User: What shape does this take?
Amino acid sequence: MDDGYGSVTIVHDARSPEDVFQDFRSRRAGIVKALTTDVEKFYELCDPEKENLCLYGMPNETWEVSLPADEVPPELPEPALGINFARDGMDEKDWLSLVAVHSDSWLLSVAFYFGARFGFDKEARKQLFAMISTLPTVFEVVSGSVKKQSKTANNSSKNKAGSKPPKKPSSDSKPPKQYTKDNSSRGNGGHEDQGETSCGACGEAYTNGEFWICCDICETWFHGECVRITPAKAQHIKHYKCPNCSHKRGRE
Assistant: This one.
């Protein structure tokens, strides 16, 4: 676990808030994947019969469920211990939200650990926190707050010229209908004013030219990359169901 958890090697030479923010962003992306698109695998790994387990976000945007570090004190702040013990004693959504809250706390602690280690002054710490605050929290993504904000933004701007594409296009739309966003479907050029659509997996806003896909069940937009759907694959999908909706129905 040294390559991922002990990521001091990734930012050893970094001394700027931008470098620490990039580490934060990558770790966050890994955790978001664990709790959304990879949730079935994450659920299985968190076996309550195992010892204290932790969820780690890695600097390469992956994640890992494993035992806590053996070092005392650890090289980096530790995430919440024993996330697996509560898995079967809580509603699944509540359990994932609890893990998300603890993950947000851990991500902040790691970022400001690096800030202290690299001697950030008051202005550098403010800059780091400001950059972190541009991203939705893991809890907001997992609990659906980002989706609700996205829907509100869509409803308020649906009559504006050049606004985001509708969730359900007309029946005479060419295939793959509601499943793709391209650079012709957005008139705002990807700017974050006027309430940008946020990805239901990573929580980040649309950027001009990206491929996106919309879930037919919850009507949430996703980066194709986040849900492993390519434009070519989307052409053969009649009704797309996102990982969250597939997971929920599979457990009903």
In short: Residues 216 and 239 are 6 Å apart (CA to CA).
